[in-house]
Amino acid sequence: MPADRMRADDPDGGQMSELNGVSDAYPAIDVRHHGRVFRVPVGTTLTVGRSPDCTIVLPQQDRFLSRRACSLHPVAEGYVLIRNDSRGQPLVMRPPAGEGQAVPPLGATTSLPHRRFSIVFMGGYSTEEVVNVDAEQILQVAGVPAEPSSGGDTLRAPEGVTAAQRRVLTALAAPLLTCSGARARPASYADIGRRLGLKPGYVRNVVKDIRESLASHGVPGLLGDVVDERRGEDFRPALARWAVWSGLVDADAVATLPPDRRPGQP
Question: How far is CA 229 from the centre of its chain?
Fold first, then answer.
């Protein structure tokens, strides 16, 4: 691991140790774990695992965690290459809001489009070890815009989707924008009905109409064959993801809804 350009801030000692004269001006990501902050410049690699050779050492007594669990490599183009170095354990890249992305053993992914995210490792007894990453600086240096572009390529709602249908669609996709981890999943028909004052059966029919309307405009993956429909194939995740990806549902739209009264919500 090229640690000669990596700097660690240990709050327990109150001192900042700097290796090889790396300054804050050098494009880098900040990686946090249990109060320690590691500044990882572009072109270097930070490793995570139970092995004492790793930059971030996970609890060695927890045998569910891998000795070499993960490596993070910031790239000048404005993203972090995330490698799962474990041969047997998956990891999850979890954004501040939205669904987490599972990375299988020996797999890899990138951090795009997220500026901040967490890497989650499952330990024994359903415990989690979490490493938090802030990639804001390398994205700024690379010229990656802070928000998605609102240029001509942005998808717009088909004319067939009414204002009332869009309100139901917003309630369906809202958890993908406001929750993280396991809670970042589409709202159920009952949840939507409770939030909007509608009956679940009515909500189900509205969602079906939306799927059919969008499918007729060429949106794939929202309709199945007769067998899919009869066995209750759930198309809510595909519809909710498309709504967020297309920009049809965003944080401003969610803010117009009544408060979410699902159990466990603030």
Answer: 30
- β-strand partners of 49: 57
Tell me the pLDDT tens digit for each residue of 220-253.
777 754 334 455 567 888 888 888 877 788 888 8
On whether the CB atoms of residues 175 and 186 are closer than 8 A, the answer is: yes
Give the domains, in start order, of the chain with CATH numbers. Answer: 3-141 (2.60.200.20), 163-255 (no CATH)
State the burial class of residue 231 (Cβ atoms within 10 Å of its Cβ: 0-12, 13-18, 19+): exposed
**What is the 8-class DSSP label of residue 81?**
E
pTM (predicted TM-score) = 0.61
CA–CA distance, 108 with 180 (Å, rounded to integer): 21
Spatial separation of the C-alpha atoms in residues 106 and 44, rounded to whole Å: 19
Give CA–CA dist 180/172, Å, rounded.
15
Six-digit token string for 132: 């938090």
DSSP 98: B
